[in-house]
Amino acid sequence: MTQRPWFAMVLMALVTALLAAHGAAAAAGGRQSADRLVFVQTNEPAGNRILVYTVGGTGQLTPAGTYATGGNGAHALPGTESDTLASQGSLVYEAENELLLAVNAGSDSVSTFSVHGDRLELEDVVASGGEFPASIAIHDRIVYVLNAGGTGIVQGFRIAGHQLKPIPDSARSLGLANTDPPNFLMSPGQVGFTPDGRQLIVTTKASGSMIDVFDIGPNGRLSAAPTQNVSATPVPFAFTFTPTGRLAMGEAGASALTTYVVNPDGTVSDPKSQPDGQMALCWILRVGEYYYVSNTASNTISAYTIAADGQPALVGATGVVAATAPGPIDLTSPSGTAFLYGQTGSGTIGEYQVNANGTLTPLGTVTGLPPGMEGIAST
Questions:
Q1: Distance (Å, rounded) from C-alpha 155 to C-alpha 63?
Q2: What is the H or E stretch that residue 19 is in?
Q3: Which of 58, 87, 320, 354 is most buried as measured by Cβ atoms within 10 A of its Cβ?
């Protein structure tokens, strides 16, 4: 049967369009939209850098580039600990605008990169609004930076194109008495928005073991002062949220995971805790129904589930799902994958498969990174 001319023309147009789309993808960096990236911050005092890795189909990371942030890293005091920035969220990927934000703790600045395929372009470096910036939070084009030195300042910004613009009169003090650089136990641990974007949370770690909650106005500015809540167990550090909106907090003093209800008036209530029997549970990452925590002083990763009423429970008999290189800190899991990557202050990245029962299968280790690095994020 002879093909009709119109069918051949349509087919040729379709092939041409597909070839053009493939060429555009190659020109944009050679990766398809389904591919994932992992970003690592070196936090080097002589010049902070971002290392880019592509995620292979079996979970292994492949180096794809190195980019200077235009600022310097820094180490919290006394300078011998694994978590040199003493924080979660020092490197953050913003998917809607394809931006990567990084702190420069030694330069009191924040760098903004645009992400093009597997390449980065430095777009902007702005003053952080305080001393020793250590954590970044983003919600609906509003950004807050936590400065851990001195009194502890949170400073607001808006995303404008590929840049950060300070929100006038948005700086708020936490009333701390830290040095610059701060002591890693006394510095605040993380800044983050509640899921609805109406409140901003800051943890103060050993500076009172407080969970500070600010209200956020329609102009992006915070309430004049936070509502202060003493954590259920000492040294609240890193946090995330459950699908129902409960605050899930890693508390290092008792090495426990505690969940709370965050109330509209800024108070937190209904604490439910479960220690993991390890030491210095600090970082936390939710992957599906599981919550993974880094136990910095035990060189392990533990896993939890959280029941509908907010009660955490360990996965398996002990909760420990992986041994790590010395000093496990930040964790990340690329969107839509079953892979988890764990950074250590000793200069490695552990690669893991997340299994259906919450356990982790080691896939390999990236070595040779700068000791003292901190900050990891993914697309």
A1: 33
A2: helix 5-27
A3: 87
Using CA atoms, how far apart are residues 61 and 35, in angstroms rounded to an integer? Answer: 12
**CA distances in angstroms from 188 to 90, 209, 238, listed in the order given:** 12, 9, 10
* Maximum separation of any 2 CA atoms in the chain, in Å: 85
Angle at 201 between CA 195 and CA 203, to 5 degrees: 135
* pTM score, whole prediction: 0.90
CB 276 within 8 A of CB 316: no
- Bridge partners of residue 306, in order along the sequence: 312
Residue 299: phi, psi to the nearest 5? 60, 50
- The CA-to-CA distance between both ends of the chain, in Å, stands at 49
- Give the length of the chain: 379
Check if the beta carbon of residue 301 is closer than 8 Å to that of residue 295. yes
Q: What is the DSSP letter of 369?
A: P
pLDDT (tens digit per residue) in 146-180: 999 999 999 999 999 999 999 999 999 999 999 99
Q: Which residues of 334-354 are buried (b: 16+ CB within 10 A; e: fewer)?
A: beebebbbbbbbbbbbbbbeb
Backbone phi, then psi, for 6, in 5-degree steps?
A: -65, -35
Mean pLDDT, residues 301-315: 98
Q: In what order do the strands lie in the sheet with 256-262?
A: 236-241, 247-251, 256-262, 268-275
Amino acid at 234: P
Is residue 267 classed exposed, middle or buried when 0-12, 13-18 and 19+ CB atoms within 10 A define those classes? middle
- CATH classification code of 34-378: 2.130.10.10
Domain spans of the chain? 34-378
Question: Could you identify the residue written with the tokens 């600010």?
Answer: 214
Is 377 exposed, middle or buried (CB count within 10 Å of its CB: 0-12, 13-18, 19+)? buried
